[in-house]
């Protein structure tokens, strides 16, 4: 059994092997209370600041359905980025699933507002042969909520075990036909994380955002991690400045796939998921 201690003072050990086994079986696992509420509040403020800047420029935010957007940012836009990517849960699960040479390829966030509708059931990109033939997971999405999620906040809904579905006959290899939706709804589990919780999932596990009736926005941070063979870095364009890069711990620099630049340029979003532009309910 591989066990890693959480940061000093948090008082809980992690069984990384158990988390990895849960991901392989269900496509998702989670750790409660990984970060303090104070740390999470700063993260939420960073996300909302980035959102209001991104929504005002062309290509700054991508629609993922009515009143729902995705914004990719640079590591420097999230003040707790180093805390996140050095957390024992993130490091341990990334190594266990994606290997010791895992790559950090994406940092961004989803944010639904009041009026967001149910999304169609989907996965975030087509399944590679390594997954649908060999049952090997080659990428992970870590998610952290910026608020305590309640029933009226359009909670994330996921169908455990569907990350191994072939999907090659689906629309764009990502959207199962409507006649298959009852199967996912039957398996579907709605998640109600609290501030400080973190989850890790295969983005191939079929999921959807649900209708958001609350006046409170629900920003969710997304950290994308790949095995070296996955190739999703081409969908993103992370940048850091030289001084920021030089100050990173070597353990972070070794895994971060990014450009080192003199001046940060706002991200023009590349990972558009056309089938999510219209909500279904």
Description:
The chain is an alpha+beta fold and 281 residues long. It has a single domain, classed as Jelly Rolls (Sandwich), CATH 2.60.120.620. It is built from eight helices and 14 strands. Helix 1 crosses helix 4. The protein is globular.
**What value does the average pLDDT take?**
91
Number of separate strands: 14
User: What is the tally of helical segments?
Assistant: 8
Low-confidence stretches: 1-11
- List the helices and strands in order: EEHEHEEHHEHEEHEEEEEHHE
Question: Can you tell me the CATH architecture?
Answer: Sandwich
Kindly provide the radius of gyration, computed on alpha-carbon positions and rounded to a whole number of angstroms: 18 Å
What's the CATH H-level superfamily name? q2cbj1_9rhob like domain
SSE map:
Elements: E1 3-5, E2 13-15, H1 16-26, E3 28-31, H2 37-54, E4 62-63, E5 68-72, H3 81-85, H4 88-98, E6 103-112, H5 129-132, E7 139-145, E8 156-158, H6 181-187, E9 189-190, E10 198-201, E11 207-209, E12 220-226, E13 239-241, H7 242-247, H8 250-253, E14 259-261
Parallel strand pairs: 13-14
Antiparallel strand pairs: 1-2, 3-10, 4-5, 5-6, 6-12, 7-10, 7-12, 8-9, 8-11
């Amino acid at each position: 059994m591989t066990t890693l201690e959480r940061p000093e003072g948090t008082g809980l050990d992690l069984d990384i092997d158990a988390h990895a086994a849960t991901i392989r079986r269900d496509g998702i696992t989670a750790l409660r209370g990984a970060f303090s509420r104070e740390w999470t509040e700063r993260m939420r403020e960073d996300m909302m600041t980035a959102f209001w800047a991104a929504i005002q420029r062309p290509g700054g935010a991508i629609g993922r359905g009515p009143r729902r957007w995705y914004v990719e940012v640079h590591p420097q836009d999230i003040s707790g980025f180093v805390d996140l990517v050095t957390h024992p849960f993130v490091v341990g699960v990334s190594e266990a699933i994606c290997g010791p040479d895992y790559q950090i390829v994406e940092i961004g966030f989803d944010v639904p507002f009041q009026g967001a509708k149910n999304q169609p059931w989907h996965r975030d990109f087509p399944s590679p042969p390594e997954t649908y033939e060999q049952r090997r997971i080659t990428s992970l999405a870590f998610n952290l909520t910026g608020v305590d999620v309640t029933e009226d906040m359009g909670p994330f809904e996921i169908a455990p075990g569907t990350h191994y579905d072939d999907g090659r006959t689906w629309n764009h290899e990502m959207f199962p036909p409507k006649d298959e939706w009852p199967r996912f709804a039957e398996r579907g589990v709605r998640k109600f994380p609290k501030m400080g919780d973190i989850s890790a999932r295969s983005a191939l596990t079929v999921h959807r955002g649900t209708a958001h009736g609350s006046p409170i926005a629900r920003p969710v941070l997304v950290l994308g991690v790949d095995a070296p063979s996955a190739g999703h870095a081409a969908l993103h364009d992370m940048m850091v400045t030289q001084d920021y890069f030089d100050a990173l711990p070597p353990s972070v620099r070794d895994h971060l796939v990014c450009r080192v630049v003199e001046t940060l340029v706002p991200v023009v979003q590349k990972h558009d998921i056309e089938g999510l532009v219209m909500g279904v309910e």
